[in-house]
Amino acid sequence: MSLFSKLFGKSDDEMAESLNKLKKMMEDAGIDTKKDEKPKEEQPAKPAEASRPQEVIKEDGPSGFSWGPNMPEEENQYNSGLYYDAYFEKIFREEFSEYDVIKEDMPFYGSGKTFTFMKGGSKALVVEVKKDSSSAKYLRNKCEREGIPYTRFFYDHEGWWNTRAYVVDRVKKALG
Q1: pLDDT along the chain (176 residues), means of 10
Q2: SS3 letters across the chain
Q3: Is residue 123 part of a domain?
Q4: Same domain, yes or no: 93 and 168
Q5: What is the pLDDT of residue 38?
Q6: Number of domains in the chain
Q7: Residues 76 and 161: beta-carbon distance below 8 Å
Q8: Do 100 and 27 share a domain, yes or no?
Q9: Cα(36)–Cα(55) distance, integer angstroms
Q10: Which domain holds residue 81?
């Protein structure tokens, strides 16, 4: 007798039949049931250029400081040759050397890195660099409650290049 049959009071055959019915219903609803069932192993971050789509689909739309359909010539996340986190860390350490910058993996709520700018033993700024699909509220709200300035960048947002000037400008504004 399996654990499920003990928990649900059904025989193994009844459990298998129920699971097969559920799988059929999911497939009928268009849900892929053939995904790899092995847990995903933590993958090292890819260099930014490897994670960037080769072709940007949007050909028109707003054009701005670090936005647009074509990669700017200015140093940016995708032409720097660095992993996204190393690119941001390099800028922070070079442009904001008066701060101690602490890099950490994001906790359970997202995928990316956090950079805490410290000055005189106090937090001066928290910067999140994360996936576009990650939760955007948890750390932002926590910083707001604690009165700590906060800003974020997405390392995979289509059309945003995270040029050096853009990153520096946003961080300077956040620092006040």
Answers
A1: 56 70 65 54 50 43 66 92 96 98 82 94 96 86 96 92 95 96
A2: CCHHHHHHCCCHHHHHHHHHHHHHHHHHCCCCCCCCCCCCCCCCCCEHHHHCCCCCCCCCCCCECCECCCCCCCCECCCCCCEHHHHHHHHHHHHCCCCEEEEEECCCCCCEEEEEEEECCEEEEEEEEECCCCCCCHHHHHHHHHCCCEEEEECCCCCECCEHHHHHHHHHHHHC
A3: yes
A4: yes
A5: 45
A6: 2
A7: yes
A8: no
A9: 28
A10: 75-175
Q: Which residue has the tokens 């290049």?
A: 161
Question: In terms of domains, do 29 and 79 share one?
Answer: no
Domain assignment present for residue 51? The answer is no
Order across the sheet with 122-130: list the strands: 100-105, 112-119, 122-130, 150-154
pTM: 0.64
How many residues are given for the chain? Answer: 176
